[in-house]
Design goal:
alpha/beta; 9-stranded mixed beta sheet; 6 helices; Peptidase M20 dimerisation domain-containing protein; hydrolase
Length: 266
């Protein structure tokens, strides 16, 4: 995975860079196609950052999950403030440094490689709708136009955020809708992916702008967020980074999550 991650990081998927965005789209699409996802690139993006719609179909299963990610990254505002080349993945003191490593390229690739490993081990995958947008950092409108029909047609009960966080080395599971009684399946999920050690937050991951994913989740569905980010990530700022240990763990966590989807009765 690290070789591919270095390549992905080196592709400057910033708004209006058509060549780089196309390269990023191609890299992600080819990885997903290698494990039998059907992939379409949709939307007339004024920023040259259309939406990747990836679907995995398992005709022998009724289990479904919708995933959300993005391939674009925040532009570099002050390159002189970076201690490393922002588009060259650098390992330093237990962390990876690079633009997009925490938001969202590291997590996106970790999850793709989790699925690749499951497939290589002949593990069953559920039906998956994966929305991977390209206008997250510019708050573009293209994804708002593209995804409603796919969400309506796919109609899953579980919607998974692009990442999540650790607070003081303890994983957090975000969940919605707002409730005074946490859904019973949450404790089962916690036990499966975090050995019951996660804490809960009955809200969504912090967002800088209105999110097309959040706004299109059906009222009768569940939103879940979990992932490897922490307070040191510096998202949208200089010297963005991600804990290597947390990223490695997330690969296993996400495989456990997919297996849980195959068994849960939500």
């Amino acid at each position: 995975m690290i070789k591919t991650l270095k390549k992905f990081i080196s592709i400057e998927t910033i708004a209006n860079d058509e060549k780089s965005n196309n390269k990023g789209i191609e890299l992600v699409s080819n990885l997903l196609k290698s494990i039998e996802f059907s992939v379409s690139v949709e939307g007339d993006s004024p920023y040259n950052q259309p939406v990747i719609i990836a679907k995995y179909t398992n005709q022998n299963s009724t289990k479904k999950v919708t995933l959300y990610s993005h391939y674009d990254v925040e532009k570099i505002h002050r390159k002189e403030k970076w201690n490393t080349n922002p588009f060259d993945l650098t390992e330093k003191e237990g962390r990876y440094y690079a633009r997009g490593i925490a938001d969202n390229k590291g997590i996106l690739l970790s999850r793709i490689f989790s699925l690749i490993e499951l497939k290589n081990n002949d593990e069953e995958l559920p039906n998956i709708l994966w929305i991977i947008q390209g206008e997250e950092e510019v708050a573009g409108k293209t994804t708002f136009d593209v995804i409603p029909k796919h969400i309506e047609e796919f109609h899953s009960k579980i919607y998974v955020e692009e990442t999540g966080v650790y607070q003081k080395n303890i994983p957090v599971i975000f969940h919605l809708p707002k409730t005074t009684n946490r859904p019973k399946f949450m404790d089962d999920l916690n036990n499966v992916i975090y050995d019951g050690k996660a804490i809960y937050a009955n809200r969504h991951l912090n967002k800088f702008t209105k999110c097309p994913f959040l706004t299109n989740i059906p009222n009768d569905a569940y939103y879940i967020g979990f992932g490897p980010n922490d307070s040191l990530c510096n998202i949208h700022r200089d010297n963005e980074s991600l804990s290597i240990e947390n990223l490695v763990k997330h690969n296993d966590v996400f495989k456990k999550f997919i297996k849980w989807i195959n068994k849960t009765e939500i």
